[in-house]
Amino acid sequence: MLGRARLADYLKAVPVRMPRWRRRSPDALQGEDPVSFAVATPFRDDAAFRRAYAAGEATGSWWGFDVEWRASIVCWAALQGRSLEGDFVEVGVHRGGYARMVVDYVGFETLTGKSFYLIDTYCGIPAAHRTGAAALFDGVYGDCYEDVLRTFTPFDTVRIVRGAVPEVLDTVRPARVAFLSIDLNSAEPSARALEHFWPLMVQGAVAVLDDYNFELFADQRAALDAAAARLGAPILALPSGQGLMVKR
Hints:
The protein is α/β, with parallel strands linked by helices.
């Protein structure tokens, strides 16, 4: 798989402290969040999480890397939104791993009055936004639009939105948002997505910023910190590499 090979190459070359990486097999890398080596991981004994994670992994989104810790945080955030008014939004979808996992974990197809908007180019980061850390992803992502359509065809309330952020954002404006995930690997689009959707989020809704606290994405963290300051909302930096925001 070209994507995984390119990703493995740049991880070896990045001159910053990254999570520990270990080999699962001669041709595959398994990434494990550092906190997993020192603390309890009860989600690994949660049958609902294991089933949902398997559904997400089956999309091929994670190139064989282990992202269970980060995935568990996404599931927790989505679970908070399950009982709130408003739609779910994921900005930066790739092949739909997190989204497919969330649909399974919260039983999204059983919820009434909710849509799940999945926003992406489905063919990688546009050249105009491949600056800073995002430049390392040049050539990593192939076109996966048709695969994503097939993955979510069984779910009538999942809305696939194809377009580049921020240009496409004005076409997606739900009345209320109960869950937000941002995983764009690019600084300015991440900040613009947060500023667009945060005012629409209801009290108690959680936003997960996937790469916020990785040193590799310092430019993305700076852009999101500036956006959060403008919004008057703090970001919690997590040892999993993510950031977390709760609407008050």
